[in-house]
Amino acid sequence: MAIKIKFGTDGWRAIIAQDFTVENVARVAEASADWLLSKNKNASVVIGNDCRFAGNLFAETTAKVMCSKGVKVKLAEGFVSTPMVSLERCARRQISESSSLQAIILQVIMDLN
Fold first, then answer.
1. Could you tell me the pTM of the whole model?
2. Measured between alpha carbons, how far is 70 from 86 in angstroms, rounded to an integer?
3. Which end of the chain, N or C, is more open, meaning fewer C-beta atoms within 10 Å of its C-beta?
4. DSSP-assigned letters across all residues of 25-60
């Protein structure tokens, strides 16, 4: 049985390898992709991660799931902060209320807490 994933005001808080797993990251990525595509059939996201344990693995998992659903993905190289992801979205002029929020949500997911 899948665990219930809960988000607070500062993102998803979970223990790595207990609730914060590749499987659960994939679940969140799939749900996020479905939501994005329901709002925009040409949805795109910017995904970044910080330097904490397995951040790159979780970012790549999110990217793979989103790509498989048809979302265009820009995956940052190296470590980036949430403001850098937001800046990238603005610089590419792909910003809208939902896509900007989604970029930030994805970064918060990748910022392993």
1. 0.77
2. 21
3. N
4. HHHHHHHHHHHHHHH-TT-EEEEEE-SSTTHHHHHH
